[in-house]
Specification:
51% of the residues lie in helices and 11% in strands. It has 21 helices and 11 strands. Strand 6 and strand 7 form a beta hairpin. The radius of gyration is 29 Å and the shape is flat.
């Protein structure tokens, strides 16, 4: 968790209250994940010699599709600022088969952590980067006003690489230094011109003017990927040595507004210490990361299973050391999985949790069964959450000038129809509301650009649009 103040506020009760804003019901699952997250905060406060011994209590969620398993984990990670990845167990194959290896889930987590930390660091230097970008734009608009500065010296590493791969490396570096050499003339008139130009650029006066700028592009290394799996484990040689090579300069003709954005990104990248970013990302991934393994029931072996099911137990045995705690090598450095929180989920229609190998069962000591949704839950989902579906559709159509009014009896009828279709065909939980609402408002959405008549969604309107489809079980199974 980022910051003690935030951690203090995230008590289990507060976490559940925040999750209640987006997810209806499932109180047991919310309590379980809230306690798991609070235990992380408690672990940080125990004495240092005991801290490594306290491992997270991984959670196994059992319930049908569309009841909120993934959403609980996703919202929890967003709430606590923890790196989060969702993976499907069915994507992985036993070692020796073609497919993704299980360690890639940890590498994905580290990549997500790197992105998170980079965005935070970028936000910290945003103001400075904007100012530097404006100065570079002024240099393009008024090159005669550029202040004098020392001309860059040839890069010693470029010279070394040039002796190995050819003199073109030295030539590129020298050309880059010459291109960067400023023109003298920091006179009083030049300063006045720059101040006026700075004011004009900042207020957007030059935004649509076209200018020609030089953009940095990473040089490609002559040596490609070496060995299988290098793209996942260690990265290719070009990426590892990319920082050592001279940057290529590409000329582009863009507007001043676009130039500011490009320069801002370049300047922010120069201000960020990527080594520090990687160190912090590895720490967060190992200490605060959450990996959500969906469809775990699909790799649970069933008694008497043969043929394609032969590798299911192998996948479980490959997942086991990751969940138990091991060190995974990534291109940013090694990361330990001992304190990553693993949340596994599955419907377990065709199998049961006891079909998992005993060792893996033992690594998910907290089991939570999620309830199937009722018509009353559907009504709540349509109206109560902050991102309620009815609010989303109202906002979408309002952008075209169409006012949609969802009446209470209309919402109740929608919930009843959704429940009825789930009972008649496959129960896909709350996702059925998406199909029902799309079908209900299909004509309105199609005509919205031309017709702006207000729409009142009451029980009669819902029955008129959906009753024939819902009553016909065969038709509803295809359409809804």
């Amino acid at each position: 968790m980022n910051g003690s103040v935030q951690a203090l506020e995230l008590t289990p009760r507060n976490i559940v209250a925040e999750l209640d804003k987006y997810i209806v019901g499932q109180a047991k699952a919310k309590r379980a994940v809230a306690i798991a997250m609070r235990n992380r905060y408690r672990r940080e406060r125990v004495r240092e010699d005991l801290r490594p011994e306290i491992i997270p209590k991984n959670i196994l969620m059992i319930g049908p599709t569309g009841v909120g398993k993934t959403e609980i984990a996703r919202r929890l990670a967003s709430l606590t600022g923890a790196p989060f990845v969702k993976v499907e167990a069915t994507k992985y194959t036993e070692v020796g088969y073609v497919g993704r290896d299980v360690e890639s889930m940890v590498r994905d987590l580290v990549e997500q952590a790197v992105r998170m930390v980079s965005e935070e660091r970028r936000a910290d230097v945003e103001e400075v980067a904007k100012k530097m970008a404006v100065e570079r734009v002024i240099d393009v608009l008024h090159p005669e006003t550029r202040p004098p500065s020392a001309q860059g010296q040839p890069n010693a590493l470029a010279a070394t690489l040039g002796s190995i791969f050819g003199n073109n490396f030295q030539g590129q570096q020298q050309a880059q230094n010459q291109a960067a050499a400023p023109t003298p003339g920091a006179t009083a008139d030049a300063q006045k011109t720059r101040e006026q130009a700075r004011s004009d650029v900042e207020r957007g006066f030059y935004d649509v003017r076209l200018v020609e700028i030089e953009v940095e592009e990473a040089s490609s290394f002559p040596i490609g990927v070496i060995g299988p799996g290098m793209d996942q484990g260690g990265g290719d040689i070009g990426e590892m040595l990319g920082g050592m090579l001279p940057k290529k300069r590409v000329h582009k003709r863009v507007t001043v507004l676009e130039a500011r954005c490009i320069f801002e990104q370049e300047e922010a990248a120069k201000l960020i210490d990527m080594d520090a970013v990687k160190r912090e990302a590895l720490r967060r991934a190992g200490q605060n990361g959450i990996i959500f393994i969906d469809e775990i029931d699909k790799v649970a072996g069933r008694e008497g299973a043969r043929g394609p099911d032969v590798s299911r137990e192998g996948v479980q045995r490959d997942i086991l050391p990751i969940v138990e705690g091991s060190t995974v090598n990534t291109k940013h450095g090694p990361v330990k999985t001992d304190h990553i929180l693993f949340i596994a989920a599955g419907a377990f229609h065709m199998s049961k949790p006891s079909d998992l190998i005993p060792e893996l069962q033992g690594r998910f000591p907290i089991r939570v069964e999620l309830d199937s949704l009722t018509a009353e839950d559907f009504k709540t989902i349509l109206t109560q959450p902050k991102n309620a579906l009815t609010e989303q559709y109202k906002a979408l159509l309002a952008s075209e000038g169409v006012d949609v009014d969802f009446q209470a009896d209309g919402i109740e009828q929608l919930a009843q129809f959704a429940m009825q279709v789930n009972d008649q065909s496959e129960n896909i939980g709350a996702r059925r509301l998406h199909t029902v609402l799309e079908r209900l408002l299909e004509d309105v959405s199609y005509d919205a650009p031309e017709k702006h008549d207000p729409v009142v969604v009451n029980a009669e309107y819902v029955r008129m649009k959906l009753q024939d489809i819902v009553k016909n079980a065969d038709l509803s199974s295809y359409i809804l």
